[in-house]
Design goal:
Blueprint: E1 2-7, H1 9-13, H2 15-41, H3 51-75, E2 80-85, E3 92-97, E4 101-102, H4 103-127, H5 132-157, E5 164-168, E6 171-176
Antiparallel strand pairs: 1-6, 2-3, 4-5, 5-6
Helix pairs in contact: 2-5, 3-4, 3-5, 4-5
Length: 180
């Protein structure tokens, strides 16, 4: 297989710019999400939860987000690993594939957390209106995480339909089969 294109969004956009866009996505999504859901669900008495429990739910959200990336690949019988990397003080989770996967499977894997957790967040906001502020905060954090997935997906949509994706530490390679 030949490499059609190498995608390195950190190198293309810059790490600080990506973090800035992700934080802006979190803030704007919180404002829109909270306003939309609170006007749809209606006003109710807000319930307070423990700060410790809320802070503990953030790494759990990140873990669930990463595992949801892995589920479509597992269901197709491919091997994928979740590795903990320590790039700075805060450890990060990375999804590592052992072999290239098809473009469509990788695209489904990228968008799976966005679709599932957005649906769960909306259903939870409707079912538990007393916790709407916390659900909105968690959903906006998730939208900030999904920002990177949407950037990757925008590149993948432009890739050839029969291409394969190989995941690397710096990004991913879009591979095409050699012409015989």
């Amino acid at each position: 297989m030949n490499c059609w294109k190498t995608i390195r969004i950190t190198q293309d956009y810059g790490a600080s710019r990506l973090v800035f866009y992700s934080v802006c996505t979190m803030l704007f999504s919180f404002l829109l999400y909270y306003l939309a859901v609170s006007s749809f669900v209606g006003a109710s008495q807000l319930t307070n939860i423990s700060l410790f429990l809320f802070l503990l739910s953030i790494p759990v959200l990140v873990l669930v987000h990463k595992v949801l990336h892995m589920i479509p690949i597992w269901l197709c019988g491919k091997r994928v690993l979740l590795k903990v990397e320590r790039l700075s003080i805060i450890p990060t989770l990375a999804v590592k594939m052992t072999k290239p996967v098809s473009r469509d499977l990788f695209l489904i894997s990228l968008l799976m957390p966005l679709l599932v957790l957005t649906t769960v967040g909306a259903a939870a906001a409707i079912a538990f209106p007393a916790y709407i502020a916390y659900i909105s905060i968690m959903s906006s954090i998730h939208f900030g995480l999904a920002f990177f997935d949407l950037i990757y997906a925008s590149y993948l949509i432009k890739a050839p339909k029969n291409s394969y994706i190989e995941n690397h530490a710096e990004g991913f390679h879009i591979l095409v089969k050699q012409a015989a």
